[in-house]
Amino acid sequence: MRLNQKLAASDDRIPPGAIGPLVQPRSIDDVPILAVTLWSMRYGDDELRRLAAQLRDSVAEVQDVSAVTLIGGRPRQVAVMLDPARLAAERVDPLAVQRALARTNARTTLAGPVSGGTVASLEAGDRLNHVFHVADVVVQSVGGRMLRVSDVASVTDGDAEPTSYVRFQSRESGTAPAVTLSVAKRKGSNAIDVGHRVLAKLDTLKGTLVPGDVQVAVTRDYGETAAEKSNELLYHVFLAVLSVSALIWLVLGRRESAVVLIAIPVTLALTLFMFYVYGYTLNRITLFALIFSIGILVDDAIVVVENIVRHARMRAHDGTSLAHTALVAVDEVGNPTILATLAVVAAILPMAFVGGLMGPYMRPIPVGASGAMMFSLIVAFVVTPWAAIRLLKPHAHHDRGEEDVLTRAYRRVMNPLIGSGRWRELFLGAVTVLLLASAALVPLGIVSVKMLPFDNKSEFQVVIDMPEGTALEETARVTATIATAALDDPDVVDVQHYVGTAAPYNVNGLVRHYFLRQAPHQADLQVSLKPKADRSLQSHDIARRVRDRLSPMARRLGATIQVAEVPPGPPVLQTMVAEVYGPDPTRRQAIAADVKAIFEKTAGWWTPIGTSRRNNPRWASSWMARRPRPAAWPRRRSPRWSGWQAVARSSACCTRNPHARMCRLCSACHGRRPWTTSARSGCMAGRL
Fold first, then answer.
1. Which end of the chain lies in a sparser environment, N or C, as judged by fewer CB atoms within 10 Å?
2. Digit-coded pLDDT (tens) for 469-492
3. Distances (CA, A) of 462 to 217, 476, 502
4. CA angle 69, 222, 371 (to 5 degrees)
5. Where are the beta strands (DSSP E) in 129-234?
6. Quick one: which of 289, 332, 290 has its CA closest to 311?
7. Would you call the peptide bond into 630 cis, given omega within 30 degrees of 0 as the criterion?
8. Which stretch of DSSP H or E encloses residue 45?
9. Do residues 548 and 486 lie in contact, with contact meaning Cβ atoms separated by under 8 Å?
């Protein structure tokens, strides 16, 4: 809202005839959670689009579906082909035909006269809903003779010229025309439930609305992926609880482990309630926070239970009640337990104040872990003593000379370390050497430092860029060649081509604005892999293998490709960007080539991506490099602005500043810093 108000305040600076700025908010809920591709060897893309349009209306009725987007196919259109000879004979301006059609294809409602205490409404005009109506539109009337559109043009009803191509390709079926429906959910709804409802709706339409020779392929189902991840994490939560309980059983005993086992679900329930209060949903990050917390939230309960057991054994002969013993034991370890818990919270909680994209993404971990620690402290002082009184039994006797195997092993190790100065020095020296050796693993390159590990997805994307000005058909030919090569990989199941239009974007594409890729020289390949259970390699290794195979082919075809994986965390932009500016286009291109060569020769970096335009000397040169880890990150056009960095006319427009340049569109002087223009939006000075 504030951005719209700011832009509206500058409407007087927009040149006449220029389209005003359009602000569209995008959020994580706009990312499609489901993509369904309709393909057939019998029907064309125009017929598939009409079928998909009917499916879109049916899917939009499903509960919690916010948007259904149709990608691909040729829409129906009425074409008015003007005849220059007849226009000249009738002395009619072509713009007059356009104005007549626009004026006729409109409906206006006005308030009419008041009669009997009510206001009658007046409607004028109508919509052109048939090809004959378009042909009968009157262009002008001269001397009582009406000139219609059919007199100066031919009107046809048919399919539009192709502006994009969508294809489905697999080993079994080959390449077939396709249309994709992408479904986004409402904010706050469960992706798993929405995906199941949409797929159930599509199943009911098969055989009725969807013919039998039209295949419906689910090319994306983030609901199913979320269910797999959630079930896997819940399994690990259950496994962690059992592992901790089994360990306590072996060390303290069966009844003691039962006391700790009671404390774990109580603490987790309180933590989940805190997530609900803060508005966090149950996702991979919150579940990871729970798993991370299990190992530390049982510390307080273990300390309290162990001390209660120790006091119970020591006071077994004096007849002290177990309730009084538990009270004394808890009081003895109360202050150290509180201090230890606060120390852990102080170490974890600062991560909640990290900014940028990583901060909001990882915030549930420090919030959840800190809350779990505080709840575990309360549970250790309230629930654990209560459970110990009811589950533990006072021991009949206590003999200080009777020790178990673990206690005897502990004494054998600790007695020399405490009693001998030589052993203490050797032990501290060994710890110091191990500490230094572990710290040296990072600078030596033996261990890689990453915030998050690579995720094992069943898809990745190949972003294809041809030289600007490439025809749509040529881009489609190159895309088909690259897709066929990608299918040669044994772990690739099928590939969807999106030429001249954007593929259903993910979180990665949301940040990098992949939904704006609509030019004829741009294409995307959506590569679907086998399920994780049916392949031995992770998706990252498969993506690297496919990239090594496709890169030489893309260079021979004159294309630039980028293999973009779905990141396990927040998407990031290019690691390094170098931009070269200068008034001499030849020298600028030479320097940019040198920078590119340095990037290519540097170990650990993949092939740089150039954004310079060699056929347009007014544009600056920019080269971006990507590291092989994390996964291949697609380029963006500029590190600071959304448009291309432009150095406009070489002639200076300011006598005081020889470095100033004029904008190539409005001749406005922008000082020393080269201004930002966009080939689509025009001069930013006129827009802002």
1. N
2. 899 999 999 999 999 999 999 999
3. 19, 14, 12
4. 125
5. 138-142, 145-148, 153-159, 165-170, 174-185, 215-221
6. 332
7. yes
8. helix 45-60
9. no
